[in-house]
Fold this sequence. Notes:
This protein is an all-alpha fold.
Amino acid sequence: MNFYPHHISDFNNATRHLTRVERSVYRDAIELYYDTESALIFDVGRLERRLICTDETEKEALKSILSEFFIKTDEGFIHERCEIEIAKYRANTSAKAKAGIASAEARRKKKAEREQKSTGVEHALNSVEQTINQEPITNNQLKDKRIDRSTLDPELVDHLFEKFWNAGMVKTGKKKAKPIYVKILKNLKGESLADFTLRIVGDINDRINSNQLGFDSMHPSTYLNGERWNDQIVISKAHIAHIGTGKDPIFERHTNQAWAAEALK
């Protein structure tokens, strides 16, 4: 056992009449009992060494507490309270082991379900991308083959939105940003859902890498509402000067101030 319940009042009531040495030896004896989860050995000489009883006072204390608190049996010196607590501990451990096995199985099944769903989403993505990657088609053909986006696959939308959400912008206002993102997907023309998402993810990465002033605090909903992927990316002079140096650039306060001010509204 790694631990055992120590009831202070019970221990004090049972040991008030003992000397300090006897109380100390008794405490060491029951801790050895719990640690090994077995009766104390018959060989008192070996037991003295295990409990570090070196002088005569400690050895006499050990004999006294064995006589008063332990029962001599064929298995060794038995302590009734210790046996009860060990039995409880083993029963609890067994129950936890069974619960752990059941929990692991449940996690395995859940993981399998997630992988199956993920495979379905990837298949949908591939189908959309294959449609876009076909040979160029005429405007009339595009009109005929335009995807009906009045309703979207929720799993596909969730998958794509997470790609956008984790692209690197400040993670603020997720509930506000998602409906805007879905509305944009529904209104896309001539571009697949996946291609659009990859395009704005790339734009976000470019703006972050260029240290565009104010972009580090722009909310995702602001980015989507303002269609900011269409804005020009202005790289600060400080960033250009430090490219390849491994140093963090110091933003010039005058760089793209109008863009930053709007982003921080």
